[in-house]
Amino acid sequence: xxxxxxxxxxxxxxxxxxxxxxxxxxxxxxxxxxxxxxxxxxxxxxxxxxxxxxxxxxxxxxxxxxxxxxxxxxxxxxxxxxxxxxxxxxxxxxxxxxxxxxxxxxxxxxxxxxxxxxxxxxxxxxxxxxxxxxxxxxxxxxxxxxxxxxxxxxxxxxxxxxxxxxxxxxxxxxxxxxxxxxxxxxxxxxxxxxxxxxxxxxxxxxxxxxxxxxxxxxxxxxxxxxxxxxxxxxxxxxxxxxxxxxxxxxxxxxxxxxxxxxxx
Length: 264
Description:
Blueprint: E1 7-15, H1 18-29, E2 32-34, E3 44-48, E4 54-60, E5 71-77, H2 81-90, E6 94-102, E7 106-112, E8 118-124, E9 141-148, H3 151-162, E10 165-171, E11 177-183, E12 186-194, E13 203-210, H4 213-222, E14 226-233, E15 241-246, E16 252-257
Parallel strand pairs: 1-4, 5-8, 9-12, 13-16
Antiparallel strand pairs: 1-5, 2-3, 3-4, 6-7, 7-8, 9-13, 10-11, 11-12, 14-15, 15-16
Helix pairs in contact: 1-4
């Protein structure tokens, strides 16, 4: 992959009900699913937008992770998986899965930051550019949000690991600051917020863009998911709205998009 270190290149849902997940996200997002070529033995379904842009995959929860809640994780592109995994440990994180190869795909490791949020490190075999993240294009991820107990420590960890920098802050009253981060000429591709419930592990939360936020809300509710917040009008002058939701298996997910004229 030609993506720079620390940029999101793939999104993955681990769930014990991949058939139901495929049906749900196919209806809400319009994604197309297929099993990757190469004789992969485990149940893995890659998904893409209607025009063929790869976004991520749905993986059946493996036996060794039974009991893990349905969860979305991100793959962050790196040039050297082994060196980055070692750096994760040096910075106080842990390695959940040691660096290993996926034939014909690339090398990866599954890691955890010092507060407990999980993510992947990935070096793809292809020299192509991942298109999985884009702030505005329908079908792709538009936002990467870290829910954590210590934003200062998280910024230090990811800053040293990936070179991320704080790009701004939005005060949220009793909920604390909403801290934006980015890298280089990518001014913002995500933010950090304080966890609001004690006893819950920090986690990454992702927003995917839909053409019509109200249609997406209706699809979420009609197909077994639940909307926990929104639609809310996002800051700025782009006319974007957001809903927070849980899918039918309980995975947290967000959707962003426009509202059609007259929607309320």
